[in-house]
Amino acid sequence: MGMMPGGTVVVATKNAGKVREFAHAFGKLGMDVVSMFDYPNLPDVVEDGATFAENSRKKAREVAEALGMPVLADDSGLEVAALGGEPGVYSARYSGEGATDARNNEKLLRELARVTNGGETAAQLADGTKLLSEARFVCALSLYDPASGSFTESEGFVSGSIMDRPRGDGGFGYDPLFWVDSEQKGMAEMTKEEKQAIGHRGRALADLLRKLED
Ligand SMILES: O=c1nc[nH]c2c1ncn2[C@H]1C[C@H](O)[C@@H](COP(=O)(O)OP(=O)(O)OP(=O)(O)O)O1
Ligand SMILES: [Mg+2]
């Protein structure tokens, strides 16, 4: 990752869960990660794009221009089939003012109970957990270099199902309600290593690193 001076990657995020995952991933490559927790005085970026990619580019460019160095940004979220793709780009603010992961998860279950009739016909896991809808996580990464004015971008996805009750205590965000069909495991039941290997962020990062090598 030659665009990253001094073996440090600046990630334009205020999400502690993302910081942990990037620190893990870049740590394996011998690089350190700093985030907006290390630059608390930068103005907030308004995430008003219509797509994950637009918001990701906006975060990377505004922070990179403020700092005068290359910056990586992540815009990500959950698309739920039974909710017509919601919450999508609104994932972080799904439960409105003062949204937290816990409130967003509660709102997700409330909305899904409405449209799936409480999961009457839903598929079930061995312990009776109902799978209420197909869903996917999306992650759009962008690296902006203010010296060249250029972006390097990638996207990653992981498909799964939304459970009617939480499982596991790893990860962050909507992970406790996300069942990964291919692994037969909840996302919050995975180690960082497992989540990086199959998750939307890990896949997007692998793709970004490939593009930077070319
Ligand atoms: O791996 C994940 N596992 C579970 N949930 C996830 C994941 N990745 C994103 N998500 C959820 C969290 C948040 O509700 C939204 C991201 O919103 P997003 O605007 O990209 O991030 P954010 O506002 O938390 O931090 P920031 O913009 O400073 O990077 O999707
Ligand atoms: Mg955000």
UniProtKB/TrEMBL annotation:
One of its GO terms (biological process) is nucleotide metabolic process. Keywords: Hydrolase, Magnesium, Metal-binding, Nucleotide metabolism, Nucleotide-binding. It comes from the Bacteria. Substrate binds at residues 13-18, 76, 172-175, 195, 200-201. GO terms for molecular function: dITP diphosphatase activity; ITP diphosphatase activity; metal ion binding; nucleotide binding; ribonucleoside triphosphate phosphatase activity; XTP diphosphatase activity. Binds 1 Mg(2+) ion per subunit. CDD domains: HAM1. It is an enzyme of class 3 (hydrolase). Mg(2+) binds at residue 75. The active site is at 75 (proton acceptor). Pfam families: Ham1p_like. One of its GO terms (cellular component) is cytosol. Belongs to the HAM1 NTPase family. Homodimer. This is dITP/XTP pyrophosphatase.
